[in-house]
Write a structure and sequence with these properties.
single chain, four-stranded antiparallel beta sheet, elongated, binds iron/sulfur cluster
């Protein structure tokens, strides 16, 4: 632990003796108290929703296969009715752009909404904390248990909690790997002890990360590891809704009897019960103002509203509001009018535009892809009959869930003809390399490189209804 010397200023006798000050403070374990209220309700709704999707999705079937499967070995992603190839990277880029703008938008409107309600770190910490509460009790019981001497009771409680944590973490790791290996196959391999080494590694690695982050690290991940907490200030402004303590109303704080008139006592509305600090998952005191550790979970709002109810004061001593609303004493309507400012509208417009473009592009997407590669070993040669031959390799990728037939044609030069099979078939979700030889009469055109086009038409059945058509450009070389 680095120690820095600080000159002692007060004691002349010790002036030459540097005082040692540690740059680090030992981590104080946080025991968040359970809380009920509207924000707790929505946080749990999001926990249910996100986990229902995460744990449930790999078990969902789509036709003959897993609905969502990222088959890295075959370089194919299956997402419901879509079969995506590495060439479909554009869709992943669009999803990343949408995620980024959604984050910008939510942050500009209401600060760290993502952190407080949907971030996996928050969600898993909440689930692990729920298990901890069920086994060890609420805040004071947990504090007493930690402070107690080692006993059979303590060992039983602690080992029960860790057993449940480990089971949940392993299930989480198993589910995660189930997105990359068909989960039924993975389950059978697990039961028969025949899981591959990479699968074992990732199940345990992901389980270990979940166990460590949600069980032990918790708020430290948000405070010290997550970069979002650091750059969020760049996305905040004075019209961003943030969790705020209304100091003008709450101060001076102080305890009082329920019947006492705070005005006569010269007190504000804060009864200094410290419950807002006790429920805070990052252990901060929101009454000190906006702090980067605040994840915007609203737990302090819920608990303070409960206190205000009990003492008979109006709710909202802690609330989601903006800095401008506080300093100008704006009404809700005035505040919301400013929240919907230019920046928010621009983010919304971009988000909508990219989302619509992505959906449109998916809707009109061809059920196959073609890559044309020139055979580099044979640039051009003269073959029987005095024809010039160029050789190509076409990678035909069938992104449909049924066998497709493809008619290959080439055009762009007078007399250009195909010397290989016109029609090829590719099984469902497979890809095939097709060698194609093109012939051109010797004196049909001038020497050099000429642009040609391959036209590939797909059919469900040989010469039946056309499913789609793609045109790929290439070059035909005529030697001197
Ligand atoms: S919960 Fe409300 S009343 Fe209690 S200390 Fe916090 S701000 Fe004051
Ligand atoms: S200060 Fe309030 S909103 Fe911020 S993290 Fe703590 S409990 Fe959540």
């Amino acid at each position: 632990m680095p120690i820095i010397p600080v000159p002692a200023a007060t004691d002349p006798a010790a002036a030459d003796e540097p005082e040692m000050t540690s740059l680090y403070v030992a981590h104080q374990k946080i025991y968040p108290r359970s809380v009920q209220g509207i924000f707790a309700y929505w946080r749990w709704m999001l926990v249910f929703l996100t986990q229902l999707v995460f744990y449930g999705l790999p078990w969902l079937e789509w036709g003959q296969r897993q609905a969502v499967l990222f088959d890295l070995g075959a370089r194919r992603f299956y997402v419901f009715g879509f079969v995506l190839y590495p060439q479909d990277f554009i869709y992943l880029s669009a999803i990343l752009v949408i995620s980024a703008f959604a984050l910008f938008l939510f942050t500009a409107v209401a600060g760290r909404l993502w952190c407080g309600f949907a971030c996996p770190q928050t969600v898993y910490s909440e689930i692990f904390l729920w298990i901890e509460r069920k086994v060890e009790g609420d805040r004071s019981a947990r504090m007493r248990l930690d402070a107690a001497d080692l006993s059979l009771h303590k060992v039983f409680k602690k080992s029960s909690k860790h057993l449940l944590w480990v089971a949940l973490a392993l299930w989480t790791g198993f589910t995660f790997v189930g997105y990359f290996t068909p989960i039924h196959v993975l389950g059978m391999a697990f039961l028969t002890g025949s899981m591959g080494s990479w699968e074992i590694f990732w199940v345990f690695f992901y389980a270990f990360a979940t166990y460590g982050n949600a069980g032990f690290m918790r708020e430290q991940v948000c405070k010290y590891m997550c970069p979002y907490a650091r750059f969020q200030s760049a996305m905040f402004d004075k019209d961003t809704l943030i969790v705020s303590y209304l100091a003008e109303r709450g101060e001076p704080r102080g305890a009082r009897s329920k019947k006492a008139d705070p005005k006569q006592l010269g007190l504000g509305d804060c009864v200094d019960c410290s419950l807002c600090v006790q429920v805070c998952p990052t252990g901060i005191d929101i009454r000190k103002g906006l702090q980067y550790e605040c994840i915007g979970c609203g737990a302090c709002i819920d608990v303070c509203d409960g206190v205000m109810d009990k003492v008979g004061y109006a709710k909202g001593l802690i609330q989601f509001t903006t800095q401008n609303a506080q300093s100008h004493h704006w009404s809700r309507q005035q505040t919301w009018r400013r929240v919907l400012r230019g920046r928010v509208l621009v983010y919304t417009a971009i988000l909508l535009a990219v989302t619509v473009a992505l959906l449109w592009s998916l809707a009109v997407r061809q059920p196959f892809k073609v890559d044309v590669v020139r055979d580099r070993a044979v640039l051009a040669r003269i073959v029987a009959g005095g024809q010039i031959e160029n050789v190509y390799r076409l990678q035909v990728m069938n992104a449909a869930e049924k066998m497709l037939y493809f008619k290959i044609e080439a055009e762009g030069l007078p007399g250009l003809s195909m010397a290989t099979e016109h029609i090829v078939s590719v099984p469902a979700t497979e890809s095939k390399w097709v060698p194609v030889r093109l012939h051109l009469p010797y004196d049909a055109t001038t020497p050099g490189s000429h642009t040609i086009h391959f036209q590939i038409t797909s059919f469900v059945d040989n010469d039946e209804e056309v499913l789609g058509k793609v045109v790929e450009q290439s070059a035909f070389l005529v030697p001197r």
